[in-house]
Design brief:
It is a single chain. By secondary structure, this protein is α/β, with parallel strands linked by helices. The chain has two domains: about 110 residues, Quinone Oxidoreductase, Chain A, domain 1; about 150 residues, NAD(P)-binding Rossmann-like Domain (Rossmann fold, 3-Layer(aba) Sandwich), CATH 3.40.50.720. Helix content is about 30%, strand content about 20%. It contains nine helices and twelve strands. It binds NADP nicotinamide-adenine-dinucleotide phosphate (NAP).
Length: about 290
C-alpha cells in the first residue's frame, strides 16, 4: 500500500500517555494513524492493485496491512484523499454519530459546538445548518471565527480567547442551548452549562482543553443541573458505531454532492512534520483537518 495521506488526531496524545485507562488504547493493542492508501500489491481477494483504501495505515510512506486493517474502499473521483480522512473519514463520522445519531436534533433548536472550526466541529456546524438548527460555535481566534461563520454553517461564532465570553454567549443564545456538542471540557464547558435549556442533550465528544486527568481536574459540580434541567449527558467513541457508518457516509456524501458540506483540510507535506503535528493541534494552529502526505 502506498500511503497517500495519514491522519493527525488529538486522540493521539492519549495513545502516547500513560493514562491508557481513560480511552482509546485497549491493553496490548498498538494504535496506528488511519490513512488513505493505494494498493500496489495484494494477496487479498477483496482488494486489487489500484484500489484506494481507507484503513489503519500508520505514519509511513508504504504500509503492509492485513485485511482487518483495511476498512473500506474510497472513490477519489468524488473527493481527494484528504477529504476521505476529514468529511468522509473520522471527523465526518464522529460528527454524524454524535450529532445526527445521538443528539436527537430537531429543526429550530440551538446547538452549541466547541472547537467549532476544527475537523469535527466544522462538520457538526454544517450538519446542524442542513438540518435546520441554529449553530453557535466557540473557537480560538478571529480567523477561525470568520471561517466558521462563512463556510461551516455557524450563525454566530465566538472567539473564546477574547474578553467577555459570558456576555458574548448570553447574547448569542438568547433562547438557551438545546444541544451542547462539546470537544473541549474544562472552562469552556463550564461557561456553556449555564445556558443549557431544560431537556438539553450534552454530547461529550472530546476533552481537548484538559491535558491530564490524573488527578482529575476539579470544577463546578453538575449533578444538580443534571437533575433540575433533566439533562442527558452522552459520551461516545465513534468506532463503537461501525454499524451506522454506511448510513453516515451516505448522508455525508449526499450533502457534499448537494453543496451543503465542504471539506476544510490542511495537508502537511512530508513525514518530517509528524513529530510536531500533534502539538500543532493542541496549539490550535491547524486550519482544518490536519493530515500528512508522507
Ligand atoms: N469521541 C470520538 O469518537 C472522537 C473522534 C474524533 C475526535 N474526537 C475529539 O473531537 C475533538 C476535535 O477533534 P478534531 O480532530 O476535529 O481536532 P480539531 O478540532 O481540528 O483540532 C483540535 C482543536 O482543539 C482546540 N483546542 C486545543 N487546545 C485547546 C484548549 N486548551 N482549549 C480549548 N480548545 C483547545 C483547538 O481549536 P480552537 O482553536 O478552536 O480552540 C484545536 O484546533 C477532539 O477533542 C477529539 O479528541 C472524538
Amino acid at each position: 500500500m502506498r500511503v497517500l495521506n495519514a491522519s493527525v488526531d488529538p486522540a493521539m496524545r492519549g495513545w502516547l500517555s500513560a493514562e491508557k485507562n481513560y480511552l482509546t488504547v485497549p491493553d496490548g493493542e498498538v494504535m496506528k494513524a488511519h490513512g488513505v492508501g493505494e494498493v500496489i500489491a495484494s494477496e487479498c481477494a477483496a482488494y486489487n492493485v489500484g484500489d484506494v483504501v481507507f484503513g489503519w495505515l500508520g505514519w509511513q510512506r508504504f504500509a503492509a496491512i492485513s485485511e482487518k486493517d483495511a476498512l473500506w474502499k474510497v472513490d477519489l473521483s468524488l473527493a481527494p484523499p484528504e477529504a476521505w480522512l476529514s468529511i468522509f473519514g473520522l471527523n465526518g463520522l464522529t460528527a454524524w454519530i454524535g450529532f445526527t445519531h445521538l443528539a436527537r436534533p430537531v429543526a429550530g433548536e440551538t446547538v452549541l459546538v466547541t472547537t467549532a472550526a476544527g475537523g469535527v466541529g466544522g462538520v457538526v456546524g454544517q450538519l446542524a445548518a442542513a438540518a435546520g438548527l441554529t449553530a453557535i460555535g466557540l473557537t480560538g481566534g478571529a480567523d477561525k471565527v470568520a471561517r466558521a461563520e462563512a463556510t461551516l454553517g455557524y450563525s454566530k461564532a465566538i472567539d473564546y480567547r477574547a474578553d467577555g465570553l459570558d456576555a458574548a454567549l448570553a447574547e448569542a443564545v438568547p433562547k438557551g442551548v438545546d444541544i451542547f456538542f462539546d470537544n473541549t471540557a474544562g472552562a469552556l464547558a463550564d461557561a456553556v452549562f449555564r445556558h443549557l435549556n431544560i431537556r438539553a442533550r450534552v454530547i461529550q465528544c472530546g476533552t481537548a482543553s484538559v491535558s491530564s486527568w490524573l488527578p482529575p481536574p476539579t470544577g463546578p459540580r453538575r449533578e444538580r443541573d443534571m437533575l433540575v434541567k433533566r439533562l442527558a449527558w452522552q459520551g461516545f467513541v465513534a468506532f463503537d458505531y461501525t454499524r451506522e457508518f454506511p448510513q453516515a457516509l451516505a448522508d455525508l456524501q449526499g450533502l457534499y454532492r448537494a453543496g451543503q458540506l465542504t471539506a476544510q483540510d490542511e495537508v502537511l507535506e512530508g513525514l518530517a512534520h509528524a513529530p510536531g503535528a500533534i502539538a500543532r493541534l493542541y496549539r490550535g494552529e491547524n486550519t482544518g483537518r490536519l493530515t500528512i502526505r508522507p
